Amino acid sequence: MADHRPTLGPASFWTQANALLRKNLTFQKRNMWTNFRLISFPLFFCVLFVVLQNLVDSQLNNSDNRCGCSCVETNRNGQCQRRECGLEYSTTDQASSCPIPNPPEWPALLQIPGPNYRAVRTGSLTSADLPNESCRSTGSCPTTTFFTGNNQSLGEILTGSMFSTSINFNYSDLLGSLATSVLGTQTYPQGYNYLEPAFASDLPIYNVQGQCTSNSTFSIVFNQSSIAREQVVTCARGLYLWRNSSSEVNDELYKGYRKGNSEEKINEFVAAYDFLNSDGNNFNVTVWYNSTYRNYSAGLPMSLLRIPRSVNLASNAYLQFLQAPGAKMLLEFVKEMPKPETKLRIDLSSLLGTLFFTWVILQLFPVVLTSLVYEKQQKLRVMMKMHGLGDGPYWMISYAYFLVISLLYMLCFVIFGSVIGLKFFTLNDYSIQFVFYFLYINLQIALAFLVAAMFSNVKTASVIGYIFVFGTGLLGGFLFQSFVEDESFPRGWVIAMELYPGFSLYRGLYEFGQYSFRGNYMGTNGMRWGDLSDSINGLREVMIIIFVEWLVVLFVAYYVDQVSSSGAGKSPLFFLQKFWRKPALSFRRPSLQRQESKVFLQMDKADVNQEREKVEQLLLEPSTSHPIICDNLKKIYPARDGNPEKFAVRGLSLALPRGECFGMLGPNGAGKTSLINMMIGLTKPTSGTAYVQGLDILNYMDTIYTSMGVCPQHDLLWETLTGREHLLFYGRLKNLRGFALNQAVEESLKSVNLFHGGVADKQAGKYSGGMKRRLSVAISLIGDPKVVYMDEPSTGLDPASRNSLWSVVKRAKQDRAIILTTHSMEEAEVLCDRLGIFVDGSLQCIGNPKELKARYGGSYIFTMTTSSNHEEEVENMVRRLSPSASKIYQISGTQKFEMPKQEVRIADVFQAVENAKSRFTVFAWGLADTTLEDVFIKVARGAQAVNILS
């Protein structure tokens, strides 16, 4: 491995941002097919709407729905010479599309409840002046109107003159006669007045009178605009009831509000009047009327309301009070504006697009969420951070990366929808759409960053994300929309529901759909900026909510990320850390710490004690040449699920100079990986600390990362990036650039045998386990890190690759401090300058391999294999050679003995074996010095035995 030392120090903010951006673009290029599938989702809905729109248009514009025509002149052969089209030749279904240059004049009517729905005395309406419920069986229930005010006597005078006691029709002036009467109908009004539905149905028209007589019901023939129809006029007795206050009126109107047949909203009362402070000099009146009728088929939020007659009745009554009983302001008729021939137009994208387009836009949420959680689950975020990527560049590039993808997604969506002609996009102002979509996708990305902190598994995050998508659409379509359209529902509660981001998106799309639907139906434009000031338009409040939530959620997401998701995390008050943290290069410890260390001196081994004293001495110096100093480092995992607390690391003190490779040996669960995790910032120490390059890991981990390399126990790689692309990315994070970067990458690939045969440009997901380990080692060493941690780097390697890797590590340890964990004693002897054996969280011994073998291996291992019936003779021979020998292994004639070196001469052993061969058959024998493996086993068993006894 070549020594690539950057000359510019730690990578700058923009260098780190450039490295991450290049990596993301490469990653994106490898996922073109995934991007195509993502974009095809909204395109599918757009094409589906076009197909359905064509089918609907073909049905709406057939001859049954176009203005009716008839032949008015034929030739001798019976062939039509002239055809005329118009309202008079049309059916009811065709009439709506006909031109009406001179709309008919219709009498002004009241909205009268049907006989079965008129107010009577019930369990909820208990007023004694209401009629008994028995009137419904005979159809004689009166039509009730309330009145109130400051002057009851004046109110009684005014209401008494509102109804006539008789009616005289002049059929030569039918419209004028109807205008002098108080007519009403239970027929529901429409959104236009070209055809009054009361004169096109079989339901009767009611004539409201003070009293009904036997001749009060009669028929009239109404002839208007070539429409001739006989209509029954039935008397309905009018009943005016006084109430003491407007609150009483409100209460009874509310109790009389109910749903009739087919869930139509009706009211049991005709109207109500509050004459306020009216007297002989002032006339002030408030009129209550029924405004609950809807007409969705016409694409209008509300139908026309029959209130002109209610206002006219009150005005005429006051005029008669001032003047004379015959004084009247005649309301002769109401009339619609002229209209040209129209076609029935229903835009499905506007009608149904709110729900489906909500799903289309929300689909980006689980995409961003799973991408963030994937980096967290695979520990790729932490891996990047450990190699010098700061939080600032990560957030800036990641956010901008997702924002650009979202913008491209939305642009493709809007552009394609506009190209194929969806009115949802073409009628509404594009600038409003852009602002709304831009604000929401920013909120959506910020929300994904926040939610990602709560998950560590991609599958779980994906399921929750798609539940959010489909649940939001369904709740918006079947719950939230009904509240928006219900004018009686408090607006404050609607705004509160819009604080949920999914509902704010749904409300914005709902407004676009409503405006484009009406614009298409009426042949006008959709939403424009001026429409945001309309009281019924909720888009302005939605955009304000989204903008504020975007800023708040982004801030909270960054804070939560710093506290919980960034390696070992930070204190909740990390932003105040600069006010209390110690200077970077201050090693002096408080006296209490030194007292605590003295306790350990009495308990540990001599070599461990010596290392602890060395650490304490180094801590008292103003500076040191040791890149790594561990000072009484402890890690205790708390009790969980009924298990006691676990001591993973028990007061480790260790100092590593430059150029040293320190090997950590120990059985599984001894605490080696826990120590590495503390040193690289994955977990926080329970107590104690460590210094890397003179910086405390508790306070300066972000700075330490810039000079650190890590080869984790498990390979942390992007499956779709190649080995070369991994090294380019991490090399840029270490401030390598240009020729130096390319040279470092090439030499790194060669050193770990990944350069030839196109392996360097193969995606890491296609690497074998050994190739991934070699790549991880190359990543840990690129860019001249001063401190390197390798957790079992040779796991899964074949012998040739392992030897090649050892050569790389031996060259790399020059001027570096390396901590290496391994289960291979051979690897430890080859690579490590010093070894430490870890058992149950404690350092049992420390020294170079020769020292440890000399200290713990003062014996020979004698092995002999014979037939089973000669085992006793072999054991007797060994006892004569070494009375203190101990048998450590026996099976099927093979025995192994440990003989102290001071009791044995090698020549005597050879002589004894030769004598034995003359007495019985010896299949195999051997005499070996103690190996490092024997030392490890001996120390580990001894320490575990002591722990069990204690």
From TrEMBL:
Residues 628-865 form the ABC transporter domain. The keyword Glycosyltransferase does not apply. GO terms for cellular component: membrane. GO terms for molecular function: ABC-type transporter activity; ATP binding; ATP hydrolysis activity; lipid transporter activity. The chain crosses the membrane at residues 38-56, 351-374, 394-422, 434-456, 463-484, 542-560. Belongs to the ABC transporter superfamily. ABCA family. CPR flippase (TC 3.A.1.211) subfamily. This is ABC transporter A family member 7-like. It comes from Durio zibethinus (Durian). The gene is LOC111289536.
